[in-house]
Amino acid sequence: MKASEIRKMSAAELDAKLRELKDELFKLRFQQAINQLDNPMRISAVKKDIARVLTVLREVELAGKDA
Fold it and tell me: Could you give the number of structural domains in the chain?
C-alpha cells in the first residue's frame, strides 16, 4: 500500500486499516512459528504498512492541533 493511498483515507478508515494490519501481522507471526508461512517477506511488508498508517495518523493529529 502506498503512502498516497493512505493519505486519502479518513481517520476512521485509518484506524480500521491499522487494526486489520495488526491482525494480519499476528496471523503471519503465528504461521511463522508453526512453520507454515509461505512468504516470509510479507511480514516486513505488513510492518512497513503499519508504520505508514501510524505516520499518516500522526500527521492528521498534528494538523488537527494546528488548525
Answer: 1
